[in-house]
Amino acid sequence: ILDTFSRPHACWPVWPGVRICAVEQGAGACCPGARKQPDLSTAVFLPSLCPRKKPRSLSYSGYDPVRDGIRQAVFIGHDWGGMLVWNMALFYPERVRAVASLNTPFIPANPNVSPMERIKANPVFDYQLYFQEPGVAEAELEQNLSRTFKSFFRAGDDMVTNKWLFAGGLLVRAPEEPSLSSIVTEEDIQVYVQQFQKSGFRGPLNWYRNMERNWQWGCKAVGWKILIPTLMVTAEKDPVLVPEMSKHMEDWIPYLKRGHIKDCGHWTQMEKPTELNQILTEWLETDARDPPEVSKL
């Protein structure tokens, strides 16, 4: 997010290759935020934000920050962050100069199909059903944080979704001592471990438990289109957010630009930082520089 945050530019310990793009591309500070992992990006990049930026309550919709006084920004999101930035562009186009999503397609809310119905119809989303009961997934994921994150952070070639389809838990079929993936270091894993020892998984899992409320809110925008500069980056080997899910986005986002990264799994910015930076930089220097057309029609 490029905004007017007063913190001077610095080389924060971002994933290899990513920090160069974040720090050197143009004026304005870079304010990273990962609300799905509340203590990760805010603790690693901007520690002062940690105490007040966690989605601890299910009543928090995720869109209150638009009132914080930043006039306009470029938003780039991944996974749940992608969902958030698409809805920023949809509901608050006057506050959004441009928006890009990594892996997460824009799927408009369908008043006739609830999120739970959609999830139950697609087995690849079974894990989201498992996340619904408060306390259950937290207990499993927090039992051995090193094992959890080493199991999660895998490159596209060694992440197999059907291993997650359930036999009593998310990590039942994972090794007790997973090998370290090529996309992370032991130091990276320990950053996550230290932060989640403080926060736990309740905040991240609440995103899944709040889907019904967000869907009800999203239904207010039925028929609206996104007409500001936009970019959709798909990853060939993401086992859940498959590129095919982004088909027909142009029906709702007529000026959409696209980027595609081959041989890349879910953790795009970690697995292919050079390729991703090239796509983002070219877009930021062209389409994202143009004044946005503000409309909800």
From TrEMBL:
Entry keywords, A to Z: Hydrolase
Domain AB hydrolase-1: from-to ranges: 69-273
GO MF entries: epoxide hydrolase activity
Superkingdom: Eukaryota
Gene3D superfamilies associated with the record: alpha/beta hydrolase
Pfam families: Abhydrolase_1 (PF00561)
Cross-referenced InterPro entries: AB_hydrolase_1 (IPR000073), AB_hydrolase_fold (IPR029058), Epox_hydrolase-like (IPR000639)
Residues passing through the membrane, by range: none
Family indicated by similarity: Belongs to the AB hydrolase superfamily. Epoxide hydrolase family.
Protein name per its UniProtKB record: AB hydrolase-1 domain-containing protein
Organism annotation: Ursus americanus
